[in-house]
Amino acid sequence: MKRSIGAKTLLYPHPVLIVCTYDTEGTPNAMNAAWGGICSSNPPSVAVSVQKSRKTYENLTAKQAFTICIPSAKYVAEADYFGIESGKNTDKIAAAGLTAAKATQVDAPYIEEFPVVLECRLTQTVEIGVHTQFVGEIVDVRVDESVLGEDGNPAMEKVMPFLYDSACRTYHGVGPEIAKAFSAGRALKK
Q1: Residue 8 counted as domain residue
Q2: Is residue 153 part of a domain?
Q3: What is the per-residue pLDDT across 86-126, written as a single tens digit (0 to 9) for each?
């Protein structure tokens, strides 16, 4: 039997996404945004939700570009810091001891130490309650060669991304492969 626990933000779990932007003076900023994910295959697009009070909101609106960085588990403290410190008074990337690099396709920074970067051009905004959802077309994906698998794609066990549990407010690692997608269910087809 299932018990109601009320209306909550329990899409379970959330990816840890680091949204990087420049302000109008070219200062890089990074924000931990668990409210996000892929929202279109064609054009390839990602959406992140940001509150209007955030520096990232101001930067996204001004620059119309951003990157999404996927941090490895060894950077959990830095990723968490990007969600608890304001970029309004602090250069968070420098304070975390990380390196801001300029994206090649959009006017936004990325974090050099994080292995996967999606370079995005803002295409839409949608007002939803206390958040604005920013939709960006992914114009390039940059991946550290050290985390590429034999097939040329990022290898999960090398990237070592981590997830956010909004119910318990904890981070969790990603475990081993449990099945092949678009294959495991074939045995159930009639």
Answers
A1: no
A2: yes
A3: 999 899 999 999 999 999 999 999 999 999 999 999 999 99
Q: Is there a domain that residue 65 lies in?
A: yes
Q: Which residue has the tokens 């933000």?
A: 9
103-114 residues labelled b (16+ CB within 10 A) or e (exposed): beebbbbbbebb
Alpha-helical regions (H) of 52-109: 55-63, 76-84, 92-95
Q: How far apart are the two ends of the chain, measured CA to CA in Å?
A: 30
Range of the domain at 154: 14-188
pTM of the model: 0.94
Residue 34 burial (10 A CB sphere; 0-12, 13-18, 19+)? buried
| Helix (H/G/I), strand (E/B), else coil: 79 | helix
How many other C-beta atoms are found inside a 10 Å radius of the C-beta of residue 123? 14
How far apart CA 162 and CA 181 sit, in angstroms, is 20
Least Cα distance to 28 among 78, 101, 84 occurs for 101
List beta partners, residue 132: 50, 127
Q: Collapsing DSSP states into helix, strand and coil, what is residue 72?
A: coil
User: What is the CATH classification number for the domain harbouring 26?
Assistant: 2.30.110.10
The torsion angles phi and psi of 74, rounded to 5 degrees, stand at -70, -10
